[in-house]
Amino acid sequence: MSLERVFFAFVIVLALTLNIGFTVGDISDPTHHNVYELYAAIVVSLIATVMKFGDRSPLGSTMLATSLVADVQLIAAATLWGYLATQTVSADTADFVTVISLAIGALIANVVSVVLLVIEVASLRR
Amino acid sequence: MTADPPQAGRSIFILLRRLRRPLVALIVVYAIAILGFTLISGVDTAGRRWQMSFLHAFYFVSFLGTTIGLGEIPYPFSDAQRLWATASIYGTVISWLYAIGALFSALQDPNFRRIVHESGTERAVRRLRVPFYLLCGYDDAGYRVARELAEDGTPLVVVDAESARVDRIDVDDLQVEVPAVAGDASDPKILTLAGLTHPLCAGVLALTGSDFVNTKIVLTARLLAPNLPIVSAGHDHAWHPRMAAAGADHIINPFDTFAERVALALRTPSLHVIYEALTTQAGTAMDEPIHLPMGHWILCGSDLFTRALRRQLLALDIKVTLVDTKAEDGSTGSTCVQGDPTDPAVLRLAGVEDANALIAGTDVDVDNLTISLAARSANKQIFIIARQIQRRNSSVFRASPADLVTLSGYVVASEVLRAIRAPLLWSFLRRARDEDEGWAASLLTQLREVAGDEVLETWSISVSPAATPTAYAHVERGGSIDLQRLMTRDGGSGDAIPAVPLMLRHGHDRHLLPPLDTPIQEGSEVLFCGAARSRAIMRHATTVHDIPLAANVSNNRHAAAMHSPKADIKSHT
Fold this sequence. Notes:
heterodimer; A: mainly alpha; 4 helices; elongated; B: alpha/beta; six-stranded parallel sheet
């Protein structure tokens, strides 16, 4: 057990949990979704990406790829939300649904990341 | 054979791995700074409380962290915001400095630079589109070979263990871009990286200073690329059988080569003239032979160089006196004087006043120069041969009293070039060495008749319908081809082209000086010698129009590497 591995797994799982926390709720209702949670999800996802840079394990490259997918989806969601917030007319429900659906996409990528992490740990034990 | 992961693109991940910590620090500091600005409230111009949105906070921290500082926007800050901004400035600037510092130290790291350099070389090797040579060892011999090949436009890849020598390639101003790897050439991975298994690799030249490394290169090349021609330099006879067993096509021993040239000049002066005329630029058949005296020779030094010479001299019944600090190992046929050869008293003891020739053959340049000077002052008539070790001392050696200077890197380089550029000429010269002075004298007379005082050139012609269409047209009309036919002018005059056929090769058979009525078969290759004018006429006579590039590539794998558009007729000098 090394501190680095603990931190590595912590960041990856935290990225998933924050992402789920943000997306849970009515998909069309902005009040169900906290902007700070999205912000935290993005930051943790970015840190997870950096942690995976040059990871030597055989699954490292796949994990880096899923992490990049999550980053792209989350940043797209945040950008869209920020853009909607600046519109003077009240935001369309359909547009807000897109913000959450983008975040759900990132959620899938994060799930894959965690699954890969578990596979890697399991194959290590064998 | 296990495949290594491709190197290219790996360096960026190594760099990123090293930058993990600073990047995480940067992200965390930014995240905290941005979060703070969204939480701390300020007062707008109308006196209302307001909070920054994430967009504004990101915008503000971005120009804050990079010290651009556009001011307090959109409204002047409250004291709490200013406090947080102050903390953010220090945090972000420090984390930036940390990240940039880490980036530079990672880029400067010699290990990382080596990897970047290697992947650059690997890319350059992969991009090669014409046959190239893999040259191992970039000392004097390697440099000369590289320069000559580059002048021909033949690309090459250099491997050398010393990175200083590899760096010198950039300075040496070769005429083609030469990818170079700094690494141990006896490491198969390095050789593969340098293009050993590349389909266009035309040959391996193992010219490192160490016989052990050369043998390892030969072995590796033979096993990983079985069909490549391999030329290897070997200094010690003990290694020759091992090199040959490992699969070297040509083993070049600079000491033997030089000793044989000396013996050639002593035994068959005419052949020596031919040799010089054929192998040096602008050599003619009219050159005077150098007159090496027989009689009594003094050899200074007792390493492989003088041992090779002594063997040749003893075979010619020359009285040999060895001078060296080390006691002689009891060999027969030569007297030995123990002492420092740079000491004039020792040289006198060896009989320098009456000797006919002296060879300053130690492995230190200063010693050899000192010996030359001492010998000249003791004997005005003595013929002095000095051995030069370092290329940079050339001007001093030229000014020294030595009559003949030999540089073993130079000897190796010219032999290597001969072996790969003109294999037929090379085998002609090897075979001619066994002939006597009478044979050589008559050949020299013949060459003088043909070329007069013009520069002698050699060229070879491969006989095939594609390469020599005129001669084949003659066959189709019911004639047969012999050498005479190849040497006849076109246009009906029927005059003979002034040239001497030196050698005929068909498969593995080689005929020295074939008679003119020798019938020629398809696939034969003939080596001619004559003036440049004769070559042009013969080229015109045998080929009416231009030949496809690959006309005879399959005949000769060395020729394939030379990519000459005139692949049918190759100039050798």
